[in-house]
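Ticket opened by: R.M.
Priority: normal
Category: complex prediction / small molecule

The reporter submitted a protein together with adenosine-5'-diphosphate and asked that the result be attached to this ticket for the collaborator who will pick it up next week. Submitted input follows.
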Amino acid sequence: NSNRDQPPTYVKKKGYTFGRVLGSGTFGEVYQAKRIKDGVQVAVKVIRKSLLNGDPTMVNKEINVMRGLKHPNIVQLYDYFESRDRYYLVFSLATGGELFERISQQGRFSEKDAVRVMRTVFEAVAFLHDHHVVHRDLKPENLLYRDESPDSPLVIADFGIARVMTDENDVLSTVCGSYGYVAPEICRRRKYGKPVDVWSLGIITFTILCGYSPYYFCENAQEMLAVMERHEVVFDKRYWWGVSDGAKEFIRACLHPDPAQRLTVHQALRHPWLEGTTALDNDLL
Ligand code: ADP
Ligand code: MG
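Result attached by the on-call engineer:
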């Protein structure tokens, strides 16, 4: 995608009626808004220039990563513009709430349900990786339901720190991500790439199957890193007795401390557990 290499050109325009605040981001609020020309409801991320010290690099990167990316399970960037003191990024709207909220509201949640959810997310991340995009901040808060219906699709949001890796040998080195979801090679300040997303997806899979983080017992980041690097994934019998061995094996393969030995998204999609052949249908809640 060659237009990814050029900086975006901002066009000043009005044309949206702003409504309620949907959420707060690092550099401003995200509003629900109506696109006046056709009445379509959208989400507008408003970023205050003053908080960026006049440097648009960060916004440009988010735009360059997202433009041209169109997938049913990824929040779409429709438009962007700026005013004297703010940038505006217009996204497809997701009103169905976060993944965890819905799981806890549901009366029943089985391994088969977990497979359905995670397969969608892995497929969306496979699409990103095939387009050389590493998300770097996959966590439950960034997985949103598009609408309130029970069969609503899940969408990946927040590409605020996502990056394009234009060739296979490209590496990233910025230390970033969210505590508890970040891969050991990022903590170690090593060069890294797409495998960091699979790590985060492994943590999310663990968490939706049992309701707690795999490293909850760690006192601090150092201890957590040591546990991660020993490839220690504890499936406490009290919470995991009803979960299949296939699920545990899948999670361990996503949480391999060596990124070269970790499953790739495409390998994960071919894993029997994520193919749905071994998952159990018993209630986990
Ligand atoms: P930041 O990059 O600053 O973390 P996000 O992109 O995560 O900003 O947006 C902040 C919050 O706004 C999100 O946690 C979510 O609650 C809400 N939000 C963001 N994008 C959308 C969207 N497309 N639809 C609905 N809510 C959204
Ligand atoms: Mg965010």
